[in-house]
Structure formats: structure tokens, C-alpha cells
Amino acid sequence: MSEPHRDTNAVGRVLGTEHTSTREFRVVLDEDEYLQLDDLVVVRTEVPKQGEVRTYGVVTEAEAIYEGATFESDTHRIAAEGILPGAKVRSARVAVTRLDPEVWVSPDPGEVVERATGAERERALYVDEMGRPLPVGLGRDGEPLHVDLDFFDGRKGGHMSISGISGVATKTSFALFFLRLLSARPDVVGEAAANLRVLVFNVKGEDLLWLDRPNRYFDEAAAEAWRRLDVEPAPFPSAAFWAPPRAHAGDVVIPDTGGRQEGVAAFTWTPREFIDEGLLRFLFTDSNDARNQIPFIEERVRSQLRRFAVDVAGEPGAVVLRDPSEGHRPGGTVVPNPGERVVRDLRALVDAIVEFVDPEEGEPEPRWTGRTQVGTVSAFIRRLHAATHRLGHLVRAGESRRIDRTAAQVTVVGIQSLHYLGQRFVVGALLAETFGEKERSGQRLPLSVVVLDELNKYAPRDGTSPLKEMLIDIAQRGRSLGVLLVGAQQTASRVAPEVMENAAIRVSGRLDAAEAERAEYGWMLPSTRARARLLKPGTMVLSQPAIPVPLVVDFPFPPWATRREEVDDSDVDPFEGL
């Protein structure tokens, strides 16, 4: 056999005392070299009738042992006393990532193992085969790691799932970092970068209401990490912020936020918009509602509202409910009759619905629901009244204050102050609007990216609801329509499997030890699962179809503020002069 290729990148040789395979092998290191976790290596093997085959791999474990030691106490005799012959041997375990050319043979024992750098590193990570490689963090060697954007934006796959322990896994931070890369690298994103629209739900605290403001703790070391990704660090240049109105502010519409008021707009829906867009179904997002006939009643009532609702002259967004047989003109307006109920808010709408579904004494059956068990109708009415109490302030007549998702590239909707029923209502209404627009256009571009934390609350593993069905529909069909979901959750095992299975890119921060052993994390190597229990904030495990093994990536500190005390007040106010 010819002398193996060797250069200054050589670190050791393929171990010959264990079988090598096409999945993994071990390296015995030279005395003056080392390999650490996540290092990339290459082995060149001369294969009969084929020629040179290069085996690329990533280090998954580093080990060391004293050869010559039999008992535990022999360690002292070799290391401290020097009375027992022995030699320190360091080795590393390598998971194979690629063979080039694709001849599936194992590397030969004794072959020289080299550190993969430059072009060899890119081949080890399939960067040369990626259609649009987007850097998404730095490897252990400080060099960029990439994802193939074709597997996110719908060309070959779509969606991203991010899991990890709350407060430690930095799930939302990584999602925002990824979105900032999308907006800052039009050279990679391509034609989709021009009109990219991102909808972000702020579900806890007010961390996401400062994305347009610089972070006072951002330093030069963090800036250099961003520059290694070919991105000049800066807050989000185009962001709009929305919040629900305060519940008990009367006729004054003030956004319900604590730390920030300036630059935040309040959103509501009018009764007319509520009826036309079928938002009644999102008042019944509890999975328990599907166990009875409540969905049947809700669907009938939703249909009847569209038939009976007539606009009120001189009152934008207000309606009255009139029987179509009375001859009113569709699309026209009417002047309310004396004593006629005018629907100006959700409470009035619920009271009007109750009149049609709860029969008066002596009536043979309700006019809108037909013959339905009284208990089911009562449960339907109870849920309506509960919804009125918890989110009634989101529906009011007057000037339209619906969220304008085209006003900025990133639209942040703060729902953290709402009851969980109100949160699900807002998420459902905006997802339905986003998905409906794309269905009507039938065009994949422009892309619409939705970032939703606590995904297990909206698409739980068990039960059914209109919101869960919509998220499953987005997961299954969204990529073909350009609607992409970036979902985050503490435990992937509690999210609907249909949603998780359609995420082409999977990311995980630190995991609970029991959660890491669940089948939902089968994409991890055993060594990676063990590491996932110890990951620090800012370090993630990433899996993508372009690479057969997961990679560990570090992402840099954000240049935007994540809370009020981080805002750099020395910077010019972005709203000054507006």
C-alpha cells in the first residue's frame, strides 16, 4: 500500500484495535495533537478498483486511557510513582458525515486522520451541495455553520421546530437570530427577501417589544461574531409593534403594555370583521369542546351570523341581526328600528346570539340550532359569556384597528397580557388571515414567516380544536403556499405529531433528562442527547436534511434589546419626528 497522504493538518490515525464502519470510527491521537467535540476530520482511503475515497466525520466524544494499567490503583503507580510501565493514549470517536465519492466502505485502520479545514471542512458539512447555504451560527472552531435554506423556505422542505427548557434553552433568541439573518442576507435568500413578512407573537413578558432598539450590553466581541457570519450587527431595521387595548379604559383605546407605549399600536376587530372572517370558531379552542356537539352549534351559528348581519348606517363596524326574508339589500346599510339591538361589541353580539339559540318558553325549537340537547346549548352559551368576560375588549365598533402586517418587515403582536383564551383567539384570527390570503393568491412569494412560542398550548398532542387543525394544515400545506412556521416549545413530546413531523429543520437547546430520551428526539445521536442536558444558553443542537448528523452551533449575543433595562438610551430614538 502506498504511503498515506499526510500534511500539517494530521492529528492521528484510525484506531486498529476496533472495527471501523461506515457509521463511525475511532482516532488514536498523536502526542502533540488534540481533537475536541464537534471538530471535523477527513480520512483518505485507497479502495481497490475505486481509487481514493475520502471519509468525513465529526468528533462526538474525546477519550483518554493509560495503556498498561489493569487496576484502578495502577493509575498512581504509572502517573505519580513511575514504578509501573504504561503510556497515556488519547483518542476520539468520530461519526461519519460524508463519503466522497459515495462508495460505502469503512476507512482502513492506521490511515492518517486530518483536521478538515477550508474546502475540506465545507465538503464535510455539504456546503458545496447546498443550494443556498445560510450561516446560522459558529462551530467549535469559530467558523460558520450553515443550513440549506431550500429546506426552510418551501423549495425542498419547510418550517423549523425549536425545543428546550424555558429560560435556559434560548429558543426565542435563536428564532429571532435566524430571522435577522434572513432579513440581512438577501444575497442568500434571493427573490424572497424583497417582500419577506414576519409575524411574531410575544406570549410572555415584553421581551420582544424592543427589537428595534440597540442593546447597551452589546460589545465588540459579540459584533465580531456577527461579522464572521457576514452580517453587520444591528437591531431589526423594520419592525411594527401591536398590543391589545386595556380592558377597562372605556372608549379610550390604549395599548395594554407596561414598559413601552411609544410606537405601539392597539388592535381590535369590529363586529362586522368578526362575523365576516368567521372568528366565532376561535372562541372555542379548548380541545374538550370537541367531545360534545358544541362545534356543530358553533358552525351553524357562524353561518347564520353571515346571513343575518346587516351594517348600520353611520356606525362603521356595527351591525344589526335581521332575517334575510325582510328584504334588506346585501352589502347595504340600514337605520335601526326603535328598540332594535345594535351590535357594537362582543357582549352585544353574544346577547343577540343567545336570543337565537336559546328558545323562548313556548317556542318549538331554537331558530338557529334546530333540535339540539339543552345541555349542549347551555354549555355553548356559558362559553360565549366566558369569552365575553376574557376578551370582549378585542371586539368593538368604530374605526378599524386591525393589524397591518404589511407596514413593516417584522410585526410583533404582544398577547402576553391576555387570558389564555384571548391569546388563542388572537393567534387563530391572525393565522387564519395569513393563511387565507396565501390560499386566495395561490403564490408562494412573498414568504410569510410565523414565530409562535409555547406551541404545545396551541397545537397540543391530544384533542382537537379549530386552532390545532389550522396549525396542522399550515405544517402540512404551508410550505407550498409560502407560509412557514417557526414553532418553539419546552417539550416536543407534547406537540401534535403532525406539526413536528413536518419541520424540516429541528433545533434544540438544553433539554430535561427525561425529555431528551423521548422518541421526538430520535434525530439526535446518543452522545448528542447526553450533551443536550448540559448545553449553555446560546448553544443549540441543529438537524437538517442536508447533513446526516446533528451539529452543535453557537449563536452570538443579540444587538437588539430584549427588555427595557437593556435599551441603549444614548441611541437616537427611532420614533423621533414621527
What can you see in these coordinates?
The protein is 26% helix and 22% strand. It has helices at 74-81, 118-124, 171-184, 186-189, 220-228, 271-276, 294-308, 346-357, 374-391, 420-441, 455-458, 466-481, 497-500, 513-516, 526-532, and strands at residues 10-14, 24-29, 40-47, 51-67, 87-100, 112-115, 133-138, 144-148, 160-163, 197-202, 239-243, 264-266, 309-312, 319-321, 333-334, 410-414, 448-452, 483-489, 505-508, 539-544, 547-554. The strands form 4 sheets. The chain has a 10-stranded mixed beta sheet with strand order 12-11-16-10-17-18-9-19-20-21. It has a 6-stranded antiparallel β-barrel with strand order 1-2-5-4-3-6. The protein has a 3-stranded mixed beta sheet with strand order 14-13-15.
Which descriptors would you attach to this protein?
15 helices, disordered N terminus, Elongation Factor Tu (Ef-tu), domain 3, Rossmann fold, 578 residues, alpha/beta
Describe the secondary-structure layout.
Elements: E1 10-14, E2 24-29, E3 40-47, E4 51-67, H1 74-81, E5 87-100, E6 112-115, H2 118-124, E7 133-138, E8 144-148, E9 160-163, H3 171-184, H4 186-189, E10 197-202, H5 220-228, E11 239-243, E12 264-266, H6 271-276, H7 294-308, E13 309-312, E14 319-321, E15 333-334, H8 346-357, H9 374-391, E16 410-414, H10 420-441, E17 448-452, H11 455-458, H12 466-481, E18 483-489, H13 497-500, E19 505-508, H14 513-516, H15 526-532, E20 539-544, E21 547-554
Parallel strand pairs: 9-18, 9-19, 10-16, 10-17, 11-12, 11-16, 13-15, 17-18
Antiparallel strand pairs: 1-2, 1-6, 2-5, 3-4, 3-6, 4-5, 7-8, 13-14, 19-20, 20-21
Helix pairs in contact: 8-9, 10-12
